[in-house]
């Protein structure tokens, strides 16, 4: 009798010299019209993700003034999203239509490795940005310069590759569709495979989510406390202190709020990216863990539909990021308008915001009180 690995095959044919039988694990797929619609939407997502993130990379590459540390990190995040959309999403779209994997078992493992590789890189960049915002606003330490940013970007690429590469060379169970629209971690009882699956989801979601959540809670508390301090003590600033800050005089204390408003807005942009990351990746993380540890869930009839939905949601993040950049960051929005042909510039020009007068690391001192804005 021939043995069959149930973690890799949906249907296993068991034969001996006298009898043969076919054991089929049935699952529920989406109707053909819904699959075609979803594949068409994913194709549109590939186009939007590529164009939007490519513009972000071009802006940073072509404009030396935009090559700050934070913009280098955002460009790296955009590049990882481009690679994810080009090297993974098209194959998923084809598999959604055909309900089958047409590209071979070996490329299945490569596809899974690339998926985790680019996702890990994007998450690493978000983690670096959140820690940088925490140091600037909470600890009053602006240590990240372009040189250090490049070093951290290089380290993040190497670390992401080291974590994702075992899935293509080791014995890790990577399931070949038709059970899912993309090669995913399959159910296994091997302690080593389960440990690796836990390592992946912890590195992709739980550690970054915990660190970013703590950072942003501290930042929110600091911004709230600084707002109260500046409001209570703006009128009592002595003239000598105001003149050292380069302000116009006591009659215009609202200038201090300009820098605080800028930094609060910049932090809000990063916070929106964090919220988008959480919404897009929490369902995928839960489904990945259940797939590896729960035989009942992995072989349930609804697994295909559930995995399709969470994969689509995880890919949505690649479209989400460039839209947020153009919505929230004025320089990126203006640069996007420069790349856009004149015939498509139908939107009215947005009035510019008040320019910053104070460095982000400025510490406002009022008597015995301090606040880092």
Structure description:
- The protein is mainly alpha-helical and 373 residues long.
- The protein has one domain (32-232, 252-341): Rhodopsin 7-helix transmembrane proteins (Rhopdopsin 7-helix transmembrane proteins).
- Helix content is 65%, strand content 6%.
- It is built from 12 helices and 6 strands.
- The protein has helices spanning 32-62, 69-87, 89-98, 105-137, 146-164, 166-169, 191-233, 239-244, 255-293, 295-298, 303-328, 330-339; strands at residues 11-15, 20-24, 174-175, 184-185, 363-366, 369-372.
- The chain has a two-stranded antiparallel ribbon. It has a two-stranded antiparallel sheet with strand order 3-4. A two-stranded antiparallel sheet has the order 5-6.
- Helix 2 (69-87) runs parallel beside helix 5 (146-164), helix 2 runs antiparallel to helix 11 (303-328) and helix 11 (303-328) crosses helix 12 (330-339).
- It is globular.
- It starts with 10 loop residues before the first strand and ends with a strand.
